[in-house]
Amino acid sequence: MKTVAGLVMLLMLAMGLPAQGAEQKPYIFAVLPQRPPVTMHTTWRPFLDQLEQETGVKFKLKLYETMNQFEAEFKQGVPDFAFSTPYQLMLVHRSQNYRPLVRGSHLLAGMLITRADSAIKVLPDLDNKQIAYVGSRNVCSLSLRQILSQQNIKLNMKEVFVGSSSNVYKMVLLGKTDAGTVLNVDFDAQPEDVKAKLRVLMKAPMIAPHPISAHPRTSRQVQQAVADAVLRMAGKPETNPLLKPVQLGKPVVAEYDRDYKALEKMDYEAMTKGI
Fold it and tell me: Are residues 19 and 93 in the same domain?
């Protein structure tokens, strides 16, 4: 038995995975701030606990109060693994060579919505109007800025950051803002009576969703173990429910060139300057 155990340990070491019972330093797993840290911890810790069981690797969950804090550490290469927006991955792929491993299968598109009875019909009508955003660097808000830049439309918009998609809908429906930005996956999930009261003024091109990515200092064996584990979790009834809350529903293998390279046409730093 000792011989078999020794062979197993040698095999795990050869694969770059920690041997069972061996002292190991946890990998830092950073997640962009989307809700208060307490809520984020409640959502993400069960997923990481299961990921530890699947891989034999330990993870330290790193959460942030602000997007600036997350991006600063991401740019410095602090996290070993990270869950970020597609745009943030594009930024650090160039500077730190983070590699996307897995992502959800539902493609994302930013949408600009107004009330159905709004006088706003085209993008230039937004000049001097109030726009509700979830946050300054969310996919939906960046999609609008990118389209305005591509179409050379310069507007003086009054931006209101409201913290959640549900608040965007409330602000628009109650007439507290003239328009708002949301994601297609969220809009599609709204009740029909809510969608009937809204008009889609603009829908951006589809992009691949938020990935889990890995810093190149983590071994390819560990990266592969994480990717395989997420895909394996999707196929088991007892672990599949852990994926949707962390935006990894129906996960697929992520590839940078196929999924995110096209985003390099965007000047992310210019789009987010001062916000």
Answer: yes
Say how far apart CA 44 and CA 75 lie, in whole Å: 22
Domain C-terminal end among 203, 221, 255: 203
Task: Check whether 4 has a pLDDT greater than 60.
Answer: no
Q: For residues 143 and 262, state if they share a domain.
A: no
pTM for the model stands at 0.86
Same domain, 177 and 257: no
The CATH number given to whatever domain includes residue 52 is 3.40.190.10
Cα separation, 180 vs 236, whole angstroms: 38
Band of residue 3 on the pLDDT scale cut at 50, 70, 90: very low
> Could you list the residue range(s) of the whole structural domain that residue 139 is in?
110-203
Phi/psi at 186 (nearest 5 deg)? -75, -40
* Model pLDDT for residues 98-107, shown as the tens digit of each residue: 999 999 999 9
Cα(86)–Cα(263) distance, integer angstroms = 8
| CA dihedral sign, ordered 183, 187, 188, 189 | positive
The pLDDT score that the predictor gives to residue 154 is 84
Total domains, the chain: 2
Distances in Å between the alpha carbon of 88 and those of 84, 96, 151, 215? 6, 12, 23, 14
Q: Does one domain contain both 91 and 221?
A: yes
The tens digit of pLDDT for each residue in 61-89 reads: 999 999 999 999 999 999 999 999 999 99
Residue 274 has what pLDDT? Answer: 59
Considering the domain architecture, whether residues 152 and 240 belong to the same structural domain is answered as no
